[in-house]
Amino acid sequence: MTGVAKRVDAIDWPAARADLDAHGWAMLPYLLTAEECNATAALYGPGDTFRSHVVMARHGFGKGEYRYFAYPLPPLVEGLRTALYPHLAPIANHWHERLGVDARFPDSHAMFLEACHAAGQRRPTPLLLQYGAGDYNCLHQDLYGEHVFPLQVTILLSAPGEDFTGGEFVLIEQRPRMQSRAEVVPLGKGDAVVFAVNSRPQKGTRGDYRVALRHGVSRLHSGHRHTLGVIFHDAA
Question: How far is 5 from 219, CA to CA, in rounded Å?
Fold first, then answer.
């Protein structure tokens, strides 16, 4: 995990924070190597690596499927959670301060998980998603209990234009008393996007106000697409 941790530490975090404050999302280019992407995508399938399997069409979530990882997490997934969290916690705390939310997040992910587990949120939430031609993911938010870390990370494990076509990562910002705004994130293989789980502060003429974000994936036209989702709070 030394290589991944070094890559995380080398990210231009002031620039990422500025993008998150301005738009609710930020690109983290080249977070994983092609080899790491391939090895992670190859994990998909039945076995003890995962705790549950969700076929999206059965629940009205879209088309495609995903599997939640079981504890212990694969080293790469665990390492990403551990390395990313300390850079994101100050941003999350600043957002809560701006929104007037009392809760604050500790410095380490292990300490945050202790609070989640004490509240009954003990099921791991990182997940691996798989899409084929015609599949898509409806707009949604990943909220699993009382303790919610307000940022999450998605990493594209497949190559656009080679492994699949279509299948863009989409964010919709719902602004009070205004029409919604859409963003399409131009991810390449190994790129990550960090974005608001639920809502973020937006500066207005009378101070900060709350805007809600939802995310999804547009319809795949061809091929197969794998994505790693790194969520920092556990589920009840």
Answer: 33
Phi, psi at 152, each rounded to 5°: -145, 170
Specify the DSSP class assigned to residue 58.
G
Q: Which two tokens stand for residue 85?
A: 């969290």
Confidence of residue 55 (pLDDT cuts 50, 70, 90): very high
State the first-to-last Cα distance of the chain, in angstroms, to the nearest integer.
28
Contact 218, 179 (CB under 8 A): no
Neighbours of 3 (CB within 10 A): 11
User: What phi, psi does 155 have (nearest 5°)?
Assistant: -125, 125
Instruction: With beta carbons less than 8 A apart as the criterion, state whether 197 and 141 touch.
Output: yes
Strand (E) or helix (H) holding 57? none
Averaged confidence pLDDT in the chain: 95
DSSP 99-142: HT------SSHHHHHHHHHHTT--B---EEEEE-TT-EEEEE--
pTM over 0.90: yes
Indicate the Cα dihedral angle 69, 72, 76, 80, nearest 10°: 80
**CA–CA distance, 122 with 23 (Å, rounded to integer):** 31
E-strand spans in 43-180? 50-55, 62-63, 65-69, 127-131, 136-140, 151-156, 164-166, 169-174
- Residues making up the chain, counted from first to last: 236
Is the Cα dihedral 197, 107, 86, 99 positive or negative? positive
Helix, strand and coil content of the chain, in percent to the nearest 5, comes to 30, 35, 35
